[in-house]
Amino acid sequence: MSLGYYDWLVKVIVLGDSGVGKTNILTQFCDSKFSQNYTATIGVDFKIKILNIQDKKIKLQIWDTAGQERFRNITQTYYKGAFGIIFVYSLIDRNSFNNVEGWIKSILESTTDEVCSILVGNKLDSQDRRVQTAEGEKLAQKYNMPFLETSALENKNIQDIFDRLGQNLKIRLENEGQKVSNNTQRQSGQFKLNQEANQTEQPTSSCNSC
Amino acid sequence: MIQHNFNPFRKSNRQAYSLFDEKSSHEITVEDELAILKPIPKYVWEDDYYEQLKLELKYYKVDIQVLSHSEWQNLLTTGMYDSSKNLLLSIFTTRSLTVKQVFDFIMMQCQMTCQFEHLKKQLKEKSYECITKDVHRTFKSSDYFQKEEVLQRLQDILVAYSNLDSEVSYGQGMNFIVAGLMYLDFNNDEAIFEILRTIIMDKEWRQLYINGTPGLFLLMAKFNFKFKKRMPELYQHFLKLGIEDMSMCASAFYLTLCMQHSPIQFSLVLLAMFFIEGDDIITKMILSMIKYFENYLLKLNDFQLIIEFIKRGLINNFYREIQKCRKQQRLVQVLLDIGLIKRKDKQHKQKIKKGLMKQLVDRPLAFGNDVYSYFFR
């Protein structure tokens, strides 16, 4: 097995208000560092990371979006073909928590496919907490998704976000894989999620031959 | 590797270079935003290319004249120039202007409204949370933007604009435009405010920042269309890798007006061109840059590498390449190849008189002016 080998390629989007720490979570997870020199994300950014879930390798193509409310329309054009969504709010910013439901709704409106989501309350390291754990849990329950409180600064629970998400993705992908196993055999080479619109409900698993 | 006494006009040398060629070009590097934060040179271009440019333009039969050194001085003092000369190419190639003078040139195009002083005061009933957040994360890696007073100035300018235009208020990307201009360190906050105001209000850039960003959608649609038309092979290549919409790498260029991942002196030239020509020039420049690196991009087979290169490396590498092309004395050839300027004979072709039938077809249809009545009247 070479380094580039993976079982599935999955598109994941990170959503949430401006300044809640989306980019920091990703740099902590992908590059194992917390950068004090972060900048505001303009447009959209990408990270790639291969995740090991039991015996499977899932290649995550993570889309890091701009958080400002007015860019939501352009962000929505990136939803297509996404399998995993990470909703982030900041524990020290009440507004970001209030807005997170809006982000969830925007996903529900624009995608008919079932997506694996997770709710994340970031900045656990701060003393000045404005959102209680119970509130986050309640919201996560309402939309039936896992919930975590994290700190990108102290690297607390960051890996867990992706492990949890990965578990769900794996179950999801395996189910899909059984449904369309006939299709997958015809497909050769790599599977690209966002190549065609109809591919999202077509084959979701294929072996990369490299 | 620079060849001395290289004569581009000799026949044997003419085809020596293709657009991007690994042997004769710089190594491609993708840097972080620190590239913008290098010390600023006095001139945008290191070498004087005026005479050479005239020779080359003549050789390639390109019917464009550029402003000479004295004409630039005249333009800066009186605001007048010979309109038969091409300002766009002049500003792109000249060494006559220092970086400061390019800044002054841009300032000349703005109307001073003298509102900055009273607008920069924060209003009590208004929230500037978004500005405050972003001020502290703009070019964070530079020492310059660690200083409290610099950040305060940055905030003042953004607050002033926000107070002036409550519908737009503040959109992410504006912070980089202001910060880039501030980094030039001419200590003229009012001018920077006026430049920002002119860009957004007078140059129709409002549509990019207002809620829903309709202008951005329009520009990206245009961009995608032109990209597909000009570089069909590259378009197919990108499609195969899952890049179906160029907005994921190009939208930031518009929102920050190329001020984020490029040498600031070159951004300033692009901004000056934007003031002369309008938004089309940004699309044209980005496409030309992609065209220049088309061969390189066709060889890349990785989604992330391509996006990273276009987002962060494109303008930096292009600027370096152009500098190199000047040293190799083949600037005009490159500009022709990437489609920034057009040859003389092409323009001539359009002027050739059309045949009788063509004239007839082109004439507006009116009563008694259709083909039928022409022959059978």
UniProtKB/TrEMBL annotation, chain A:
<dbReference type="GO" id="GO:0005525">
    <property type="term" value="F:GTP binding"/>
</dbReference>
<dbReference type="InterPro" id="IPR001806">
    <property type="entry name" value="Small_GTPase"/>
</dbReference>
<keyword id="KW-0547">Nucleotide-binding</keyword>
<dbReference type="InterPro" id="IPR050305">
    <property type="entry name" value="Small_GTPase_Rab"/>
</dbReference>
<keyword id="KW-0342">GTP-binding</keyword>
<comment type="function">
    <text>Protein transport. Probably involved in vesicular traffic from ER to Golgi.</text>
</comment>
<keyword id="KW-0449">Lipoprotein</keyword>
<comment type="similarity">
    <text>Belongs to the small GTPase superfamily. Rab family.</text>
</comment>
<dbReference type="InterPro" id="IPR005225">
    <property type="entry name" value="Small_GTP-bd"/>
</dbReference>
<protein>
    <recommendedName>
        <fullName>Ras-related protein Rab-1</fullName>
    </recommendedName>
</protein>
<dbReference type="GO" id="GO:0015031">
    <property type="term" value="P:protein transport"/>
</dbReference>
<keyword id="KW-0653">Protein transport</keyword>
<feature type="region of interest" description="Disordered">
    <location>
        <begin position="176"/>
        <end position="210"/>
    </location>
</feature>
<dbReference type="GO" id="GO:0003924">
    <property type="term" value="F:GTPase activity"/>
</dbReference>
<keyword id="KW-0636">Prenylation</keyword>
<keyword id="KW-0813">Transport</keyword>
<dbReference type="Pfam" id="PF00071">
    <property type="entry name" value="Ras"/>
</dbReference>
<feature type="compositionally biased region" description="Polar residues">
    <location>
        <begin position="178"/>
        <end position="210"/>
    </location>
</feature>
UniProtKB/TrEMBL annotation, chain B:
<protein>
    <recommendedName>
        <fullName>Rab-GAP TBC domain-containing protein</fullName>
    </recommendedName>
</protein>
<feature type="domain" description="Rab-GAP TBC">
    <location>
        <begin position="62"/>
        <end position="278"/>
    </location>
</feature>
<dbReference type="InterPro" id="IPR050302">
    <property type="entry name" value="Rab_GAP_TBC_domain"/>
</dbReference>
<dbReference type="Pfam" id="PF00566">
    <property type="entry name" value="RabGAP-TBC"/>
</dbReference>
<dbReference type="GO" id="GO:0005096">
    <property type="term" value="F:GTPase activator activity"/>
</dbReference>
<dbReference type="GO" id="GO:0031267">
    <property type="term" value="F:small GTPase binding"/>
</dbReference>
<dbReference type="InterPro" id="IPR000195">
    <property type="entry name" value="Rab-GAP-TBC_dom"/>
</dbReference>
